[in-house]
Amino acid sequence: MKRKFIFDQNKCVGCGSCVMACKNEFQTPPHINYRSVRPANENPDVPERQFVNTACVHCDEPACAKVCPVSAYSKRKDGVVVQNQDACIGCKACVAACPYGAPQYYEPANKVRKCEFCYPRLDANQLPSCVKGCPLGALGMIDLDTGKVLTSLGTVAKVSGMVDNLPELPDKSITKPNHRFILRKPAKQVRYMVVAPAVTGGEKKGSEGPKPAI
């Protein structure tokens, strides 16, 4: 089974529950976030809010693994890129190489850490903490062998309209990232017409209402 994160822009409200779920799972310090939620590039002519939700994208050609001098990174059969903390020497070469900013340097330990797709949870047939923590099912995990998408709200047999990159993210040819997105659909603008009440015979046209006391 090969897994990828899938993010639906139509459902995300930018609440950050996925970020907090990840921090609770791994007890990361305030300045280290394995997942991030930020506003997407917006069109001023289209008054709608949308977000970009990213973490490590577990690339097919991970830049972190290519530059690591001690081979601390490896790729599992399911596509998850993991890091050997014991091997890491804190040189930060992977931090500089990753176009997605996934590796995070933790100075007190002189180590680099990153999202590892919660692989111990995967091995226990559980959802990643960020996916489980999303209250609206905007963040999910897709099984590429079956096409099924698993979210906190349940399983979707098939999803259409997926894309493999967003304008806000690096060119996918650099590292061949493993993520999927469902783009935001244009919002419908609803305009209300206010109709003034009709003037009855008992009312004087142009009469003024009561004035506020001074």
Automatic annotation (TrEMBL):
<dbReference type="InterPro" id="IPR017896">
    <property type="entry name" value="4Fe4S_Fe-S-bd"/>
</dbReference>
<protein>
    <submittedName>
        <fullName>4Fe-4S dicluster domain-containing protein</fullName>
    </submittedName>
</protein>
<keyword id="KW-0479">Metal-binding</keyword>
<dbReference type="Pfam" id="PF13247">
    <property type="entry name" value="Fer4_11"/>
</dbReference>
<dbReference type="Pfam" id="PF12797">
    <property type="entry name" value="Fer4_2"/>
</dbReference>
<keyword id="KW-0408">Iron</keyword>
<dbReference type="InterPro" id="IPR050954">
    <property type="entry name" value="ET_IronSulfur_Cluster-Binding"/>
</dbReference>
<dbReference type="GO" id="GO:0051539">
    <property type="term" value="F:4 iron, 4 sulfur cluster binding"/>
</dbReference>
<keyword id="KW-0004">4Fe-4S</keyword>
<keyword id="KW-0411">Iron-sulfur</keyword>
<dbReference type="GO" id="GO:0046872">
    <property type="term" value="F:metal ion binding"/>
</dbReference>
<feature type="domain" description="4Fe-4S ferredoxin-type">
    <location>
        <begin position="48"/>
        <end position="78"/>
    </location>
</feature>
<feature type="domain" description="4Fe-4S ferredoxin-type">
    <location>
        <begin position="3"/>
        <end position="31"/>
    </location>
</feature>
<dbReference type="InterPro" id="IPR017900">
    <property type="entry name" value="4Fe4S_Fe_S_CS"/>
</dbReference>
<feature type="domain" description="4Fe-4S ferredoxin-type">
    <location>
        <begin position="79"/>
        <end position="108"/>
    </location>
</feature>
